[in-house]
Amino acid sequence: MPETIIPSEITGTVWKIEVQAGERVTQDQTLVVMESMKMEIPLSAPCNGVVLRILVAEGDPVVEGQDVVVLE
Predict the structure, then answer these.
(1) pLDDT digit string (tens) for the chain, length 72 residues
(2) Taking the CB of residue 1, how many other CB atoms lie within 10 A of it?
């Protein structure tokens, strides 16, 4: 099954990680909550799948387009 790489849509900070590697997720489920300019922006799954890898940790700074989560 092909991997789906989910990039950050904004430059900001990883505020909260809502899932764990190995967890099954559904389309539109929140995976990571980003924070930018005191706003919380959820990063959602584009499809059903299983979390293969989480490439960031809470508190990490990220730039727009940076890979955050890999789904299978």
Answers:
(1) 689 999 999 999 999 999 999 999 999 999 999 999 999 999 999 999 999 999 999 999 999 999 999 999
(2) 8
Task: Judge if pTM exceeds 0.85.
Answer: yes
The three-state DSSP-derived secondary structure of the chain is CCCEEEECCCCEEEEEECCCCCCEECCCCEEEEEEECCEEEEEECCCCEEEEEECCCCCCEECCCCEEEEEC
Q: CA-to-CA distance for 53 and 59, rounded, in angstroms?
A: 17
Distance between CA atoms of residues 52 and 72, nearest Å: 6
CA atoms of 56 and 64, how far apart (whole Å)? 13
What does the alpha-carbon distance between residue 5 and residue 29 come to, in Å, rounded to a whole number? 15
CA–CA dist 66, 49 (Å, integer): 20
